[in-house]
TrEMBL record, chains A, B:
NCBIfam families (alphabetical): PRK08261.1
Record-given protein name: 3-oxoacyl-ACP reductase
Family listed: Belongs to the short-chain dehydrogenases/reductases (SDR) family.
Single GO MF annotation: oxidoreductase activity, acting on the CH-OH group of donors, NAD or NADP as acceptor
Matches recorded under PANTHER family: 3-OXOACYL-[ACYL-CARRIER-PROTEIN] REDUCTASE [NADH] (PTHR42760:SF78), SHORT-CHAIN DEHYDROGENASES/REDUCTASES FAMILY MEMBER (PTHR42760)
Name of the gene encoding the protein in the UniProt record: fabG_2
SUPFAM superfamilies cross-referenced by the UniProt entry: NAD(P)-binding Rossmann-fold domains
Signal peptide: none
Domain Ketoreductase: 200-376
Membrane-traversing stretches: none
Length: 439, 439
């Protein structure tokens, strides 16, 4: 979808005008092209903790340099050595001199210890403080820079590579100001980081268009065989997507009583399993609560939330999700912050967050992870149809001053889906360019 | 501090003009006056769970009616009986018919079970979904209505009164869209709910002006003897506040090495204890990280975060905080969402959140609670000095379309300080009129 303002603001004349008028300055975000390396250039690694050395090693093996002069593609700071609030000064010491040495669309990653796993309250306090620092850096550095905080559990030092690769690459162009938790896990690194999903079977619901289509395409690019599901009414665009990515099309209404059973039969017969389940299908039925009909509540809640529960439970009961399985659900910023006219939608999407958080420990015993993405303003047909003022407000009110693309959501899901991401479960990551709107 | 737009928008001519131009419509918020009852009028209670009946009883004993025709002063829904996502329909059934029957500055409270204490993932998912619903109601109902979600742990049914009184009263005028957790605790209800702090000794740091002054005044109104602390340079306004509320003035620089020891000596000699500690003292030293001097980092972190740690530890080590003690820290929305030019401030205020969350379990064994408030845009001398555009942006970008008053922060702190609030610990409550800005 087009964003003519961002295009204009990146012409020579546009840049000058935008500066003179004090308008938002959206930069053209660098995005990943198939075959590119995840990491390149120089990523400066600082800090003194249990992660700096292993991270330097994996970055070098991934093809990046970890020292030398700027401009840098990334700045990674290991804050796990910070034991109390006075030690936070190390953040200043590392970032202050290099704050202006990042390339456009640069990357900042701070690595910490999950506060809840710290030995004492003073250490936990300092580790929790990192979040305020990182979110401020993400708002301040500008020019397409992203900044994230990754809490790495003690013992999870080997589980961090897929996350660093994602967060340092152009794949995370529209992910910023996020907090990610990596736990200890037996990680099987992909044989080939450019085709990490080789040999995997994936299901994507709502795959006929928009974000779902982008998810299907990115998972296929990464090597998965993708079963594209959508309602029968979307049969034509669905087939087109499935054919184009050499996947399969499956027409199914998820609200029908026999849908879970039909999915079980489908995967039992065709593949014997499904490795990756992406719950993307969802609808909006906006109305203020006073004007909302019963039906708008019921049908939305069923598609956006209850059907996900039914499908997960059926696939698990039929033993179709093997160890190493991945469930990724699509939540929404509305589910985090609420929204006028969306009591139904926000409840369903907050429920998705609960689904992910409280199924994570249950699924861990089966070797299955479950995570969620929460898109902000993403350029789709849906947002293109918004009134101009609402659309422009949503587009510009984030640290990138622009909307995201469906591919940004898809890349985030592919990161969760990777065999390398066994240490990630129960996470909710916003794909919102660090939207100012929040809870 | 004045907000001339809100005053104007509440005149007859102003109301008409604001409507015609589609401008924000801030209503004049009802605030508490000393001696008023916390709860009055009719508070409709619905839902079927373990809380509806006890809540009806306590509301009636508190002087409210719990059934009858609207307009209502409050709507309370007990959602603890909702066992899965299909059961969420009960929210719609209760709120849809009465969504327009609230008085201006009405109150909505939804009561749930903490998802982490639910018996199974489906129940946890449904309980987590409540948050999206409540935040949407808070954005949608308008006219000064607030809406909150209170998670009441099983067994904490008797610990909820102070929280309901606060959230249903005009004391919470600028608190909306918040999630509060009440745990099981031995609660001693105050003998007199209009003077709940009778006989208590309180310390308020940074009490010479602004929010700190308001805190001192409200705690004194509620019956506490307040020790007002500020730096020697603020000696004169400090004495004026202390005299006015019949408290004590204590000039002390919290960054001095002997400050914790001097506090210990002060309370040992004068009172033998301190029941309520309010960490309000804090500074800003805004600069982008690239331009920030070392000193701006160090002095800010010391005052805003490290000094709180030192004071708590010294008072606890000297056994001056008795069982029933209360610590309340002032965080900030910047600590939650980050802010451009505030890497230092946001880190310190995020650290305060960590301090509260990770000291709560440690202090619980001593019968002491610790909570935080996170103010949004509050009208003070500091905000009055902001450039107009920044000020108006901050003021209007919340569900109340206006800034809060220092007293709104103070009332929230007084709620945490109450003997009735033994079940509240580790909470972070924003006083921000449900600011749109978030994380």
């Amino acid at each position: 979808m087009s964003d003519r303002y961002t295009s204009f603001a990146n012409t020579t004349a546009g840049r000058a005008m935008v500066k003179r008028l004090g308008l938002p300055e959206p930069v053209r975000l660098r995005r990943y092209r198939a075959g590119d390396p995840d990491i390149e250039g120089t990523v400066l690694v600082g800090g003194a903790g249990r992660l700096a050395e292993p991270v330097r090693k994996l970055l070098r093996e991934g093809g990046a340099s970890t020292e030398g002069e700027g401009p840098y593609t990334g700045l990674v700071f290991d804050a796990t050595g910070i034991a109390d609030s006075t030690g936070l000064r190390a953040l200043y010491d590392f970032f202050h001199p290099v704050a202006r040495s990042l390339r456009p669309c640069g990357r900042v990653v701070v690595l910490g210890t999950p506060p809840e796993e710290c030995g004492n309250p003073r250490e936990a306090t300092a580790q929790r403080a990192l979040e305020g620092f990182v979110r401020s850096v993400a708002k301040e550095f500008g020019r397409g820079t992203t900044a994230q905080l990754v809490y790495v559990a003690p013992g999870a030092e080997d589980a961090v590579e897929s996350t660093l690769r994602f967060l340092l690459s152009p794949k995370s162009a529209y992910v910023s100001g996020q907090v990610v938790r990596v736990g200890a896990a037996d990680v099987t690194a992909p044989a080939n980081w450019t085709r990490p999903l080789e040999g995997k079977v994936a299901l994507v619901t709502g795959a006929a268009r928009g974000i779902g289509e982008a998810i299907a395409r990115v998972l296929a690019r990464d090597g998965a065989h993708v079963v594209c599901l959508d309602v029968p009414a979307a049969g034509q665009p669905l087939s087109a997507v499935a054919n184009d990515i050499k996947g399969s099309a499956l027409q199914l209404d998820l609200t029908s009583t026999d849908a879970p059973q039909r999915l079980v039969e489908y995967f039992s017969e065709r593949n014997g399993r499904v490795d990756i389940v992406v719950h993307n299908a969802g609808i909006t039925r906006d109305k203020t609560l006073a004007r909302m009909s019963e039906d708008k509540w019921d049908v939305l809640m069923d598609i956006n939330l209850s059907s996900q529960e039914r499908v997960n439970d059926a696939l698990l009961a039929a033993d179709l999700l093997p160890s190493g399985g991945r469930i990724v659900a699509v939540s929404s910023m509305s589910g985090i912050a609420g929204n006028r006219g969306q009591t139904n939608y926000a409840a369903s999407k907050a429920g998705v967050i609960g689904l992910v958080q409280f199924n994570a420990p249950v699924l861990a015993s089966k070797g299955v992870t479950i995570n969620a993405v929460a898109p902000g303003f993403i350029e789709t047909q849906m947002t293109a149809a918004m009134p101009m003022v609402v659309r422009e407000g949503g587009r510009r009110m984030n640290s990138m001053s622009q909307g995201g693309q469906p591919v940004d959501v898809a890349e985030t899901i592919a990161w969760f889906a990777s065999p390398g991401s066994a240490g990630l479960t129960g996470n909710v990551v916003r794909v919102c360019g660090q939207s100012l709107l929040g809870a």
